[in-house]
Amino acid sequence: MQVLNFKTGIDFGAEGNLQEFNPVGFSPTPDDVSTWSEASVAELTFRLPPLRHDVRMVIEVFPFLAAELVTEQACWVFFNGLFVHYERIRTPIEMTFTVPRDLLGPRANRLSFALPNAAAPKDLDLGDDLRLLGLSFVKLTAGPP
Question: What pTM was estimated for this model as a whole?
Fold first, then answer.
């Protein structure tokens, strides 16, 4: 299991390092700069170096929207199963939140994104794509608050 490097973070593009973080619920084929979530829950697993402070996370995402059918993506963020952030996403944004130090585990840490508005383009008559698209993830960075 990979240690999350605060200098490099996680790059979700085709040349990125997403696969090092045991992704679940992400498309296996990224595009040049991002990777779509393809389920109602997407997760990453990583270790953190020993820390004496909270961790601020910034995640660059853009939502799957479909005219009047899907007008926003709700995103519930959990760290090791505990709620840490909620955001309604209607445009490309940098989602920013702080994970308290007492939630940081010395071994495996799981960052989960629950996306209840994720939808398959096929179900909306917008193509043949069967994936439940919610957010396209571009970059995750982390560091001291």
Answer: 0.94
